[in-house]
Amino acid sequence: MNYRHAFHAGNHADVFKHVVLLALIDALMRKDTPFFALDTHAGRGRYELVGDENGKNGEAATGIGRLLAASDPPYAVQRYLRAVATDNPAGRLIAYPGSPLLIAQAMRTQDRLSACELQPEEAAALKALFARDARVNVHASDGYAAIKALLPPRRGDIRYARGLVLIDPPYEARNEEYPRIVAALRETLNRWPQAAAAVWYPIKQRRSLAPFFRQAAALPAKSVLVAELLIRPDDSPLRLNGSGMLILNPSWQLDAAIAPALPVLKKTMGETGASTRLEWLKQEAG
Fold first, then answer.
1. How many CA atoms lie within 13 A of 53 on its CB side?
2. Would you state the torsion angle of the CA atoms of residues 122, 18, 60, 5, taken in this order, to the nearest 10 degrees?
3. In the chain, what are the domain boundaries?
4. Please, are residues 23 and 254 in contact by the beta-carbon 8 Å criterion?
5. CATH of region 18-48+98-257+277-282
């Protein structure tokens, strides 16, 4: 595996993914009972934006950098910007928090996170980041295998009735990745039916994702929601035209929480032909 997220930290895909992720976490926090989160491809947790790796392509400048200039953004965007600011000096953007750090920052004392990372260097950095946080367990292991090992989640006599499984793989071999994702989602639902599951996916050409959507909609989830942000048309020859989040068993009114953010993300980070999508592939009756 050659993928290193540091080159892309804070880009439009990260911004979109993390706005949606924090809306999911906030929904879990509306109840006092504890929740459990599993991040299957966690990365190193924090990414420096001032070093050589990010500076080579400056993707954060056209992602989070542009969103910082948004005037009077909706709550979901404000929530995200506050979370990023928590990990930075006042008025400066020198580091970008990855998914596990954003989840951990939001969690309460009673909540738990298991973060998996297979790359040794990234896993070591992740372990160092959370070395003093007893709420977080870091596993230097394959995230797909962790679904079988860690679900349904328990801690002593505590069984977690609520939670989230985040699947965000590098997609180095896309023909192989999507079948693994569908199998992982099926395993998640079999082991922990009441959990929400969220999958981040890249968009080059949306029509190529049709089989994935059909398979996801056929899974035994009560509802399936798709949210997408394309910063340019999906027939552009550029490498990554947008990204999406496929969400199984989303919390009540999650779509309403996300909807106001999408036009702002499109306006601030999009180019000519940018678009958004928020659509139910399956919706629970009533």
1. 14
2. 20
3. 18-48+98-257+277-282
4. yes
5. 3.40.50.150
Identify the pLDDT of residue 2.
47
Which pLDDT tens digit goes with each residue over 36-52? 999 999 999 999 998 65
Q: Does the predicted model carry a pTM greater than 0.85?
A: yes
* Backbone Cα Rg of the chain: 18
Contacting residues for 223 by C-beta, under 8 A, at least 6 apart: 248, 249, 250, 280, 282, 283, 284
Alpha carbon distance, N-terminus to C-terminus of the chain: 44
- What digits encode the pLDDT tens for the residues 113-142? 999 999 999 999 999 999 999 999 999 999
State the pLDDT at residue 74.
Answer: 97
The C-alpha atoms of residue 158 and residue 136 are separated, in whole angstroms, by 16
Known catalytic residue: 14?
no
- Closest alpha carbon to 258 in 277, 285, 271, 241: 277
CA distance 21 to 37: 11
Q: Residue ranges of the chain with pLDDT lower than 50? A: 1-3
The strand pair at 112-116 and 35-39 is best described as parallel
Quote the Cα angle for 241-280-259, to 5°. 65
Options 168, 234, 235, 255, the catalytic residue: 168
Helices within the chain (DSSP H only):
12-28, 52-55, 64-67, 75-86, 99-106, 120-129, 143-150, 174-191, 210-217, 254-258, 261-269
pLDDT confidence of residue 216:
97
Angle in degrees, CA 195, 199, 202, rounded to 5: 175
DSSP secondary structure letter of residue 250: P
